Amino acid sequence: MFLNVLAQTSENTNQGGFDLTSLLLPVLLGLFIIMMFRKQKKTQKTVQEQRTQMVPGTEVMTQFGLFGTIVSVDQEENKAVLELSPGNTATIHLQALTKVVTTTPVEEETETVVPDDASSLTGETPRTETADAARDDAAAQEETAEETLERLNRENKKDN
């Protein structure tokens, strides 16, 4: 089947006609090469930026997940000495250093108090559950059953 399609396109080109499909392969190949070089250039740029940041005292991560602080860098031999813990050092290849670790300061989160009713909108002081419970306990000890029923009816009418 492919040979039939190829034979038909070659017949058209022999007649002197211009065939767009003959341009498709070189254009795609050129696009692929351009994209490949762009990606390689970006990668080299990021590696160069990381290398400039890798000076003694910088905290880094290696390809195999070790975190440490750079003690010294030997560019000629492509080696770096990392301090993994106080007094514990390791010599590694510079290409094994993959990431410069930056610590961001943690902001203290202030706990916001959100009232469970609309008292903040009306200007009333918010009622807390403990104050409500204490008031209800004191009222329950002093009132009779009839008074309790009347109070609950009044509260029910306020809510509706």
Ranges where pLDDT stays below 50 over 5 or more residues in a row are: none
Gross geometry: elongated
How many beta-strand runs? 5
The assembly state of the depicted protein chains is single chain
What order do the strands of the largest sheet run in, or round the barrel if closed?
4-3-2-1-5
Give the fraction of residues assigned to helices: 40-55%
Proportion in β-strands: 15-25%
**The CATH C-level class name of the domain at 54-100:** Mainly Beta
Order of helices and strands: HHEEEEEHHH
The major sheet is characterized as: 5 strands, antiparallel
Q: Radius of gyration over alpha carbons?
A: 38 Å
Q: What number is the mean pLDDT?
A: 78
Q: Tally the helices: what do you get?
A: 5
Classification by helices and strands? alpha+beta
